[in-house]
Design goal:
It comes from Mycolicibacterium obuense. This protein has 495 residues and is an alpha/beta fold. Helices cover 51% and strands 10% of the residues. The protein has helices spanning 19-27, 30-52, 57-73, 75-88, 99-112, 124-128, 131-137, 147-154, 171-185, 197-214, 240-246, 266-278, 311-316, 331-335, 337-342, 353-364, 369-373, 383-387, 394-408, 416-428, 431-451, 467-470, 483-490; strands at residues 92-96, 117-120, 141-144, 217-220, 224-226, 231-236, 250-256, 260-261, 286-290, 301-307, 458-459, 475-476. Strand 5 and strand 6 form a beta hairpin.
Length: 495
């Protein structure tokens, strides 16, 4: 099973609807909204509790941001050091400019082992490049072993959250998916399966165990790569990652180049801010660190695919490069009022929520309807910056990306918004035109108030083309007197 397409950064997203269109459909799904409200509320509360225990939380945020900036400002040097140290430890390092190169490298490595299947650790990078789909086309089965990823894969679905990919599903839905799909690809779920979390986890564990013991090749990502030792780090909560990283004979890790940290010491800060911001825990249940292969312990071959796929382009953008600080904690999703109501699928990417709204169009460009709409998928409330453990100023970056979208799509037939802004610019460019508009509005306001029953102050809708604006909000009745007219009439308020 390869999962649902149209989620990566490889081009198949071009047919997806814009964010407002997708979000409108999601808003009509009451079950989805209930699932999201419950899950994000729970995670927010857990995070707030464990962050509140620390007196130096802001100092940790500043340190984490400084560490990531130091890594990005000398990224070429740190990547070269990482390659040298990982190679010295016995790993083989590969470089991939884009998704196609990365997928081809992985396919060739799997074929070299004579394998027809791989087990996978949860990995945003492999979802980004749509590795599962590429492996399927090559006749190789990829089995997701993270519980949430397993739910998504068995349900022929696609992730909707960075930390909890199946956040849009409830327990009853998971039970139905397990009963219907597990038997088609391995050990079936027990007939008496209930929606109790313990029973669901047990069914997943039994289903995956035979795959863990059988697989010769595993594929992982990495949360961090340590330049001065050539080490990779994976943090997880279930133990499935540890199984993938230790049991198969060959391990292939696909790692975004921005994951590099300069030194081992830097990891200490990251392992404080990441679990608290993501799962609301003081420490991850499983933190796996490996440096090449080791005799008699773990895989015999370790391959590391360092992935660019648009990241150097993001790094070149002075106003947008801070997005590469992201450590994929998902804290910004859990506090975002837009994400909570629209859900992750509305973003058309493996990176949903506020960080996805700035990172995805930087990686993919703004040619498609979905990508040029993403920077507008925000109220700019600022909650995302307040919780970000590496202090990414997402609201400012969203404004930057909006400017970029406008600049890149100038010319041609103007949109309704462009026409409205042009008219507004003309009206506001001369006080005499503005005064004339105010007089017309005041006259209209008097007429409307005399006709509206009970002196209502709001209009339910406006005629076309303003109906597009009033379709999602009430329009106020124009005032019967502008501030300028009142000032002139009263002599500056001295009636």
């Amino acid at each position: 099973m390869s999962g649902h397409p149209h989620v990566g950064v490889t081009g198949v997203h071009l047919g997806l609807p814009s964010f407002p269109t997708a979000a409108k459909s999601a808003l009509e799904n009451s079950v989805l909204r209930r699932n999201l409200t419950h899950a994000t509320g729970t995670i927010r509360a857990k995070r707030a509790n464990v962050v509140g225990e620390l007196d130096n939380w802001e100092e940790l945020r500043l340190a984490a941001a400084a560490i990531k900036d130091a890594a990005l400002h000398r990224l070429d040097e740190h990547l070269a050091a990482f390659e040298a140290n990982a190679t010295a430890a016995g790993a083989t390092v590969h470089w991939a400019r884009d998704a196609a190169e990365a997928n081809q490298i992985v396919i060739e490595l799997v074929r070299a082992q004579g394998a027809s299947e791989v087990v996978k650790v949860k990995s945003m990078a492999t979802q980004e490049i749509e590795l599962n789909e590429a492996l399927a086309e090559a006749g190789i089965d990829a089995w997701e072993t993270d519980l949430a990823e397993l739910i998504v894969q068995l349900g022929d679905d696609w992730p909707s959250h960075i930390l909890v990919p199946a956040i849009h599903r409830n327990r009853a839905e998971v039970r139905e998916i397990f009963l219907r799909e597990m038997g088609r690809v391995g050990r079936p779920a027990p007939d008496d399966l209930t929606d109790e979390p313990r029973r669901l986890a047990e069914a997943a564990r039994l289903h995956l165990r035979e795959k863990f013991l059988r697989a010769k090749v595993a594929v992982s990502g990495a949360n961090f790569a340590i330049a001065d030792t050539g080490s990779l780090v994976v943090v997880e909560s279930e133990g499935n990652g540890r199984m993938c990283l230790t049991l198969p004979e060959t391990l292939i890790s696909v790692v975004g180049i921005e994951k590099v940290l300069p030194s081992w010491r830097d990891l200490e800060v990251m392992l404080q801010v990441l679990p608290r911001s993501s799962t609301g825990e003081r420490e991850n249940p499983y933190t796996s660190i490996w440096t090449g292969p080791a005799q008699g312990d773990g895989p015999r071959e370790v391959h590391i695919v360092l992935l660019d796929n648009g990241r150097t382009g993001v790094l070149a953008d002075v106003d947008g490069r801070d997005a590469l600080r992201c450590i994929r904690c998902s804290a910004c999703l859990n506090v975002c009022p837009v994400y909570e109501r629209a859900g992750g699928h509305s973003y058309g990417s493996v990176y949903p929520g506020p960080i996805g709204a700035v990172l995805t169009p930087q990686l993919r460009g703004t040619a498609s309807a979905i990508d040029k709409s993403l920077p507008y998928a925000s109220s700019l409330c600022g909650a995302c910056f307040d919780v970000c453990p590496v202090r990414i100023d997402i609201p400012s970056m969203l404004v930057h990306m909006r400017t970029r979208v406008v600049d890149e799509h100038r010319g041609g037939v103007p949109s309704g918004e462009q026409v409205a802004m042009t008219v507004a610019s003309w009206l506001l460019g001369d006080h005499r035109r503005l005064e004339a508009l105010e007089k017309v509005a005041a006259a209209g306001g008097k007429t409307l108030r005399s006709k509206l029953f009970g002196g209502k102050q709001r209009l339910r809708s406006l005629p076309w083309p303003a109906s597009a604006w009033s379709g999602a909000r009430d329009a106020p009745v124009p005032p019967t007197e502008s501030f300028r007219a009142w000032w002139d009439r009263t002599g500056g308020g001295h009636e």
